Amino acid sequence: MAATAAPHRSSKTESYTDNKRKDDVRQSNIIAARSVANAVRTSLGPKGMDKMISTSSNEVIITNDGATILNKMQVLQPAAKMLVELSKSQDSAAGDGTTTVVVIAGALLEKCLLLLSHGIHPTVISDSLHKASVKAVDVLTAMAVPVELTDRDSLVKSASTSLNSKVVSQYSSLLAPIAVDSVLSVIDPARPEMVDLRDVKIVKKLGGTVDDTELVKGLVFDKKVSHAAGGPTRMENAKIAVIQFQISPPKTDIEQSIVVSDYSQMDRILKEERSYILGMIKKIKATGCNVLLIQKSILRDAVTDLSLHYLAKAKILVIKDVERDEIEFITKTLNCLPIANIEHFRAEKLGYADLVEELSLGDGKIVKISGIKDMGKTTTVLVRGSNLLVLDEAERSLHDALCVVRCLVAKRFLIAGGGAPEIELSRQLGAWAKVLHGMEGYCIRAFAEALEVVPYTLAENAGLNPIAIVTELRNRHAKGEINTGINVRKGQITNILEENVVQPLLVSTSAITLATECVRMILKIDDIVTVR
């Protein structure tokens, strides 16, 4: 037992005596965090299981994306919540490997529990884990293969690997090239290593299958053109204005009612309304504008039936209820300026496109703007699906693939998948641990053993014999075959690089560093103080 460890057996820094309370808090934290890791462990890899999540609002989600599963789980224990945050951190840093990072953290915590039971001080374990993670990043970098952005095939292979573990894996040959082309089209030449995924808009439309998903060079709105008073639904040589003001009669600033005593006064009010709206539409028409995108208004109606009637007569195509947060993307794509007041309505603030048309798609309609002149560095992906569950999962999977390509743009190195880097890390760190003295070497050996959880879980989820597979992997890596990993499709061990199972270096390095950071933080907690 830790409490009865004889002080003369080792130096003070290496023996650890603690009171029961601190031990219990640390142990309960580790057990709670491990249970969260075990919950997502079965969904790791291409043959991983999917989870069906039923939310409190009776919404059903089917996914095997670690970040989504953990995000929807109602975790109450503070240390277990840290693993949910860890998954979110990996999602924002790399976009992929959200399940891997939690599984690695769970395995490290299991080893830490063993080390603590042997009487090793948490600070010693924490410092050793930090050293091991720094060394692990160096080993991974040495294994990595450089990639150029001009090498489209390598980028597509990497995106495909990310998609292969998803529910929509059978469509990876379609979605991977879309993800690559999307990211490459939004790269700014001035800052080639920076990619803002907000420049890639994903529009979901129910109907059809995932096969019908397409990359649109232009803009797509999941809404129909305003048909009031028989306005146009197709416009060639479009001059497009994005307006943030209302084409409707003004209201008073304060809530009040106006009493009209006779019909002549009522007629006068209606006449004033008509002339006010007509005056606005004449100013709009004078600039040559023939397509209006109207921002959704909270205070009063953005357009009334009367204004729509006059706009239809002026042969102006109207798309109303454009969301406020879409305005920035629309103006960047159309290379135009949003217009906040009718007095500022000028021809130089308009965007130009060859065609704006309404198309029937599935059971609804969409508006498509194509042939945009001087188009900004943005792109739109129209995702289709036969039901909402598939549609949502296709969007999540596409987002992961986009993140993987973004990682490659930021750090242009590829690494083998299929558990190959983890086994190689385990081997090299194990060899390094033998050279080190004292508790440090013991802790680093535990870190090395913990990394074997990834290939072990991959084999287990694929229905293979995990012990035989991991033993054979160790044997192959000891012979110098560093890119040998588990091919779960064939159910055997092969050179994973030749099988095109690759992932960005950033995904692996951030998974190791973030998992280690999280485990070190949990280790350092020796008490939970509840403030009411």
Automatic annotation (TrEMBL):
Q: Region Disordered: list its residue ranges.
A: 1-28
Against Gene3D superfamilies, the record matches this protein to: GroEL, GroEL-like equatorial domain, TCP-1-like chaperonin intermediate domain
> Quick one: a GO cellular component term?
chaperonin-containing T-complex
**Pfam families xref list:** Cpn60_TCP1
Q: Where in the cell is it found?
A: Cytoplasm
The domain of life for this entry's organism is: Eukaryota
Chain intervals with Basic and acidic residues compositional bias? 11-26
Q: Which UniProt keywords apply?
A: ATP-binding, Chaperone, Cytoplasm, Nucleotide-binding
Its GO biological process annotations read: protein folding
Query: Molecular function (GO) terms listed?
Result: ATP binding; ATP hydrolysis activity; ATP-dependent protein folding chaperone; unfolded protein binding
Protein role = Molecular chaperone; assists the folding of proteins upon ATP hydrolysis. Known to play a role, in vitro, in the folding of actin and tubulin.
Q: Which family does it belong to?
A: Belongs to the TCP-1 chaperonin family.
Q: What is the protein name stated in its UniProt record?
A: T-complex protein 1 subunit delta
Q: Which organism is it from?
A: Medicago truncatula (Barrel medic)
